[in-house]
Specification:
By secondary structure, the protein is mainly alpha-helical. The chain contains 17 helices and 2 strands. Strands 1-2 form a two-stranded antiparallel sheet. Strand 1 and strand 2 form a beta hairpin. The two termini are 45 Å apart.
Length: 341
């Protein structure tokens, strides 16, 4: 989708969020409709987003607007996203560093800093010593910071060490590696707008529950104005031709087993006899957890390889790719599957 499309979606979000709580049902309907439009732009990314955004539950629309959509200031989240896109090859190299590699790299950085005449960075610590007749007297102590900080201010390695444990950096890096067939800048815009709108919608629905107001699907009230607010403006905005440009992906593209044919044959023997989406999801999840697949497949990849007895949604909602939730019934179901003995 083009930059103009993102700008328009942002304009619609601004209009909807300006609706006050005296028209909270209209506001809820508007957010719901807009969220669907954004979802249609990145349908195969939704499973990844829903399973990896536990650290962004407090994100709101204003966070997206100021930190990613505009992000003109220094040290914004947009800067982290730019770093991921521009230095992905460097990041891949840095992640492989052993302890010996780290020592060598730090020594080189320190040597480089001296060669180019960069002075070590100091931290100024001021200690209060009490008042004198001439006023307050201070004693200053200077301490050299860690060698990593000596690196030039725009150094990619220095930034890597600043970002490596940042949740946004980790999420964006996985997003880039999983959906490299998208244009990363557009993918980030749609992904974080989706997260922000989803959280805004949840906030509105929580307020409606406190106020004792049922969701619009139960009350069928005030839908016309909300639908007109979104549908009349963006109903033409998300045809297939205007989605982010990407190449068609195949299920075999995400297989990382040494014998792709053998794995496909085994997966067919397990999936082709399934009658329910939850059973198919258990097989796919186990293949992903066991590292036979580099990630969870999307709808296009699954439907192009297997003949399904159910809807994709019945499968998608039961997929899981994290071992951090071993109590989850989806994880437990996946553990009952044996891919290879």
């Amino acid at each position: 989708m083009s930059e103009v499309d993102i700008n328009r979606l942002v304009e619609f979000a601004e209009s909807i969020l300006k609706i006050d709580n005296t028209n909270i049902i209209q506001k809820r309907n508007g957010l719901n409709n807009l969220l669907k439009k954004v979802s249609n732009c990145i349908p195969d990314v939704l499973t990844f987003i829903d399973s990896n955004t536990k650290d962004f539950t407090n994100w709101r629309y204003r966070d997206y607007y100021s930190e990613i959509y505009t992000g003109y200031g220094l040290y914004t989240k947009k800067e982290i996203l730019k770093y991921v896109a521009n230095h992905i090859m460097d990041i891949n190299e840095y992640e492989k560093d052993t302890e010996d590699d780290l020592k060598i790299r730090k020594a080189k950085l320190q040597e480089y800093a001296q060669v180019v005449g960069i002075q070590p960075t100091y931290k100024r610590v001021t200690k209060y010593q009490g008042a004198t007749g001439a006023g307050v007297h201070y004693d200053t102590i200077e301490t050299i910071l860690h060698p990593d900080i000596i690196y030039v201010q725009t150094g990619t390695y220095r930034k890597y060490w600043e970002y490596k444990n940042n949740q946004l950096f980790i999420f964006a890096l996985n997003l880039y590696r999983t959906f490299g067939n998208y244009k990363f800048r557009e993918l980030c815009n749609f992904t974080f707008l989706y997260i922000a709108l989803k959280n805004e919608l949840q906030q509105v629905e929580d307020e409606m529950e406190l106020l004792g107001i049922l969701p619009y699907s139960d009350k069928h009230e005030n839908t016309d104005n909300a639908n007109k607010l979104v549908e009349s403006n963006i109903k033409e905005e998300t045809p297939e031709s205007k989605k982010p440009n990407r190449e068609k992906s195949h299920f075999s593209d995400i297989i990382q087993h040494k014998n792709k044919e053998a794995l496909l044959e085994r997966l067919h023997s397990l999936i082709d006899v399934c009658k329910k989406g939850v059973d198919i999801a258990a097989v796919i999840s186990k293949a992903t957890l066991d590292k036979y697949l580099i990630r969870l497949p999307n709808e296009e990849e699954v439907c192009s390889e297997f003949k399904l007895p159910c809807t994709w949604e019945a499968i998608r909602k039961n997929l899981i790719d994290s071992e951090k939730v071993k109590s989850d019934k989806r994880y437990i179901a996946a553990q009952g599957i044996v891919i290879f003995e």
